Amino acid sequence: MQSKTKQELLNEPRDLIVFGEDWGGLPSSTQHLISHLSKDRRVLWVNSIGLRQPELTVKDVKRAFKKIFSDSFVSEKRNKGFYTRIPSGNTSNIGEDNFIVVNPKTIPAPKSPTSRWISRLLLLLQIKPILRKMKLQSPILWISLPTAVDFCGYLGESSLVYYCGDDFKSLSGVDHDTVSKREVETLKKASLVMTSSTTLLNNFPKDKTIFLPHGVDFDLFSNPTQIADDLPKDGKPIAGFYGSISKWFDIDTLKKVIDYLPTWNFVFIGKVEIDVSSISSLSNTYFLGPKDHQSLPTYSQHWTVSLLPFVNNKQIDACNPLKLREYLATGTPIVSTNFSAIQEYKNVVKIVNNSYDMVDAIEDSLFDNNKEIRKMSVSNQTWTFRSKQVSTWLSNL
What we know:
This protein is α/β, with parallel strands linked by helices. The chain has 2 domains: 6-213 and 382-395, Rossmann fold, CATH 3.40.50.2000; 218-378, Rossmann fold. It is 34% helix and 17% strand. The chain has 15 helices and 15 strands. The chain has helices at residues 6-11, 29-37, 58-69, 113-134, 176-189, 198-201, 218-222, 251-260, 277-280, 297-300, 314-317, 322-330, 355-364, 371-378, 383-395; strands at residues 16-19, 43-46, 73-79, 82-88, 99-102, 140-143, 159-164, 192-195, 209-211, 238-242, 265-269, 285-289, 305-308, 334-337, 350-352. The strands form 2 sheets. Strands 4-3-5-2-1-6-7-8-9 form a 9-stranded mixed sheet. Strands 12-11-10-13-14-15 form a 6-stranded parallel sheet, with helices on both faces. Strand 7 (159-164), helix 5 (176-189) and strand 8 form a beta-alpha-beta unit. Mean pLDDT is 86; it is low at 4-8, 52-72 and 77-93.
């Protein structure tokens, strides 16, 4: 068999070393993109190295324990378009696998030069043997967390890409000073910067930054599904939300709305990270907990109206929620508070400014007949399409 020329190797899609959040769970935009990009390139995915140092809390202790005692890496083999996690105890078969997830054991978000050096050394000792086994071809270093900039130049990468999906300066649970400094370093070293919102786009160097809107798994959310077993079935219309129920969740406005609409059910899906007692005690309110991503259409296709009830702050103004396009793909009416990313869909989403507007919009959704218009608004914005755009940009680096 004739070996490939240097030019042929350069024309092939380059492999990726990705520093992102922990692989699995509800997929982030990075996971959606990398899942598609990995179809014709090898990927080494490094789980989260943190955006702050851990504190002595139950949550942080549990997370640290999981990190320390879990497998160092797992291989990801594709099975009919999905990934199957395979725990591994050695590196003997890494060369045969095209997607490796590394669970790093290192110092999260180190601050001092010494701790940064130790953190880098610890992680390099873990992943260098894996890189040698995988034999990546001119890999691109893709980072979604600015703290990963400490590894730039140490992994044999051909270039650095920064994919920014959040305004880290306003994100809760982050060491803002450390992360802001690392982001400045990242922007200097990156060959390409991609942002998921126009607000973020305006914060970065114009000569190397590209706007990359989120995509959607259109087939998953648009194809009819059966109704979830635990969705209320008492005949009342349902206003629903799924996602993280955290500080950006406008619980004060929702309390007023739910009080005013006793003939409606309100369903909330996701991990609860704030005090919701003011509404959870109400008879027409249901908190169903986190759900698998694949099951979300069994809820959102069958409730009457989808909600985006966010507070007005810098974090929300810079976000571009994945659920927005997923909601649209179901065709269900959407009622949302106002933020920058929603403006693109102002003709197919009801934008409200207060609880009174939200009550009116929710009631009006009963008479909505624009289902197909909403679905068509995102039918060509799939993750497949977005990943093809990214692949073209990567090939030009």
